[in-house]
Design goal:
Length: 155
């Protein structure tokens, strides 16, 4: 079904490139950057069809050694393409993207489990206690303990 749909999309939108990957349709367009007069990868759907879904469903963010190159290999795209996708998203850079998913997962676990905070952090890809606490506080404006206390009292 996805193959047929991608063929229909190709007929309707001939300027766009469609490809199937991981049971999803990837919609991309190559365009010219007027400033540099060079090609750059501009992703029409901000790759919510691939990058963010794959990151969430396959939970690659839990890999403490995840890098831009490693993640782009998982997605079967060039690292420069992934950089452009992130650049055109709400995330500042690759590490902001990964840490956002890590913190979201950690927040869920802080509310739903009694596991030690640092174990939850390590299980979600952080390999440094200080980096975890700094990033968590930056993204939530609370320490993990404060967050857990506040949200467990609500349930």
């Amino acid at each position: 079904i996805l193959y047929v749909f991608s063929q229909v999309l190709s007929a309707w939108l001939p300027d766009y490139n469609f490809r199937l990957q991981d049971d999803m349709i990837i919609i991309v367009i190559w365009t010219i950057d007027p400033y540099y007069n060079s090609k750059y990868f501009c992703e029409v759907t901000r790759l919510s069809l691939l990058t963010f879904q794959v990151l969430e469903h396959k939970q690659y963010y839990k890999d403490e050694n995840l890098s831009l190159i490693k993640f782009s290999n998982y997605l079967d795209i060039k690292s420069t393409e992934l950089t452009e996708i992130i650049k055109h998203s709400e995330f500042e850079n690759f590490y902001d993207l990964i840490n956002t998913y890590r913190i979201a997962s950690i927040k869920h676990e802080l509310i739903s489990s009694e596991e030690q905070i640092i174990i939850i952090a390590y299980d979600n890809g952080f390999n440094s206690k200080s980096a975890f606490y700094r990033i968590f506080k930056n993204k939530t404006v609370k320490t993990p303990s404060e967050f857990r206390r506040l949200h467990q009292n609500k349930s």
